[in-house]
Specification:
single chain; mainly beta; 4 domains; 11-stranded parallel beta sheet; elongated; Serralysin-like_metalloprot_C
Length: about 550
């Protein structure tokens, strides 16, 4: 909602006499513009004068020697206050001086914004209002050394030329200085000091150099400025240097090769607004090594950062040893909190999360949580534990070599073990369960479950036990690259299966043998045992299992 102002003035429309205007934001009845009667659609903060007032769409309603009242097409009213106002027979101003401007609610009483300390002829003001658009008119009025005072609500304050003083007051405010050597005070609330107007200023040629502890900044024009009471900082398209303080702060570098050091406190780097300035890439952020490729393709240097807000595109984010909060929004994202108890939010898209701490939280409720999402965990993890796995998470893969467990949820899950001895439980849903290497215990629970065998067979170190195989609902799936002597893919043919108490093949065609009194499953690669049969799984005993319970892929 910020207004981008280009400072250019026509010679035939001179600026106001050299004055120090004061802009005061009001907060009538605690209402924001989108709550006015009539509402200003989409305006949820108290904006600058130029966003409220478009004199090209104004109609004059009353005039006196000290006041001229205009009605705007957005429902607001504007009152020019001054002395000696006079008009010719056609209604054009021919005399008088404007000393202040009031922006009023539709009732003509409630103050929205005032500009005092002006000294401009009424005729000149009318010429400027006709010549300039709304943002240019604001810049023309505030071209001196001005003071801007915010309200108790959330305001957007914008300075212009001149050495301005900007006092945001209470509320969560966004403050932009413009040209000149400015002084900023964020006041109470979570306030933002913004330098992204450099994108629209031809005279901006450098990144900012900001020190939040010292409260000093050299801005994009080379001016040395001071500030206090700000919690968020927004840079430029150039290479910015921003150093944080001991409080919690947020940084947005935008374009350029930025250097951002959060300092003490819990600090956040944001890339989620970059698209507003033309960025087209997802980010690759690594808080462990302090290197980030931003959404413009530039490399940033980060230190002392705990939290990341990424983009709507495909992001890759690695945290550090702190407890990180990582939010990636849309896109097919890869999020690894690294050390620490991290909260990871991927949002829409097919996201992959890496879990390594019992305190990690994977949250898929943000942005509706659409997509098919995977948790890759080096510790035991339960997709059905709503304290650690929030929202719709479909897949779980166990990492490394530990003897850890994995549990599904009510969805159709894919659970994959590691090389250790795992316990995998599909819980509800129609699940695909692959123990991987190791002697694993597998449980499908309710639903139509499939147990996949896809790793090199070993009768000592890679034998899985299916604890609840149900011949009415469940299926054993065999990877043909492992069971390569089986002919064909799809349902196992009856000629290639036998169930008996001996645990050996009866014919040379039989490849899968179910030993009914022990529940053991064997793979016989030649049907006569000469090449050796391999015990690869154990089911319940005395099941009425047939070839139709097996599927080859």
């Amino acid at each position: 909602m910020a207004i981008h102002i280009t400072n250019h003035f026509w010679p035939e429309t001179p600026g106001p006499e050299e004055t120090m205007a004061t802009v005061t934001y009001h907060f009538p009845a605690g209402l924001y513009p989108n709550q006015y009667n009539p509402p200003l659609s989409g305006v949820s903060v108290n904006p600058s004068f130029g966003e409220l007032v478009d004199m090209h769409k104004a109609s004059r309603s009353t005039t006196t020697s000290t006041e001229v009242l205009y009605r705007l097409d957005n429902g607001l009213k504007v009152k020019l206050v001054g002395t000696g106002f006079s008009f010719d027979a056609s209604g054009d101003a021919v005399g008088g001086t404007v000393t202040s401007i009031e922006v009023l609610l539709n009732n003509g009483v409630g103050l929205v914004q005032t500009i005092t300390g002006l000294n401009v002829s009424l005729e000149t003001f009318n010429d400027a209002a006709a010549a300039f658009d709304s943002s240019e008119l604001e810049s023309w009025l505030l071209s001196g050394d001005d003071t801007l005072n915010g309200s108790t609500g959330n305001d957007e304050l914008e300075g212009h030329l001149g050495n301005d003083v900007l006092n945001a007051g209470a509320g969560d405010d966004i403050v932009t200085g413009g040209g000149g050597t400015d002084t900023y005070d964020g006041g109470a609330g979570i306030d933002t000091l913004n330098f992204r107007d450099a994108y629209d200023a031809l005279t901006a040629t450098r990144g900012i150099n900001l020190d939040a502890t010292a409260g000093t900044v050299i801005d994009q024009f080379g001016n040395s400025e001071t500030f206090q009471n700000f919690e968020e900082f927004r840079g430029t398209q150039f290479s910015d240097r921003m150093i944080g303080s001991s409080v919690d702060e947020t940084f947005m570098g935008f374009g350029g090769r930025d250097t951002i050091a959060g300092g003490a406190g819990i600090d956040t780097i944001r890339y989620d607004r970059d698209f507003q300035l033309g960025a087209t890439k997802g980010v690759n952020v690594n808080l462990t090594n302090g290197v980030s490729i931003d959404s413009f393709g530039s490399q940033d240097a980060l230190s002392g950062i705990e939290n990341v807000r990424a983009t709507d595109l495909k992001d890759t984010i690695v945290g550090n040893s702190s407890s990180n909060f990582i939010r990636a929004f849309k896109g097919n994202d890869f999020i690894n909190g690294a050390g620490g108890a991290d909260e990871m939010r991927g949002g829409a898209g097919n996201d992959t999360y890496y879990v390594d701490n019992a305190g990690d939280i994977v949250n898929e409720t943000a942005d509706s949580g659409a997509g098919t999402d995977t948790v890759r965990s080096s510790i035991s993890f339960n997709l059905g534990n709503t304290a650690a796995a929030i929202g719709n998470l479909e897949h779980l893969t166990l990492l490394n070599t530990g003897n850890i467990s994995g549990t599904g949820n009510s969805l159709n899950n894919t659970l994959t073990g590691n090389s250790g001895n795992n316990g995998l439980n599909g819980a509800g849903g129609n699940d695909l369960i692959d123990g991987g290497l190791g002697n694993d215990s597998l449980r499908g629970s309710t639903g139509l479950d499939t147990f996949l065998f896809s790793t090199a067979l070993n009768a000592v170190t890679n034998v899985d036990t299916i604890l609840d195989f149900n011949i009415a609902d469940d299926t054993v799936r065999l990877e043909n690259a492992i069971f390569d002597a089986i002919q064909g893919v799809g349902a196992l043919t009856s000629a290639q299966f036998v169930s008996n108490t001996a645990g050996v093949a009866d014919t040379s065609d039989q490849r899968i043998v179910y030993e009914s009194d022990t529940g053991k499953l064997y793979y016989d690669s030649d049907g006569n045992g000469a090449a050796g049969s391999v015990h690869f799984a154990t089911l319940g005993t005395n099941l009425n299992i047939t070839a139709s319970d097996f599927f080859v892929v």
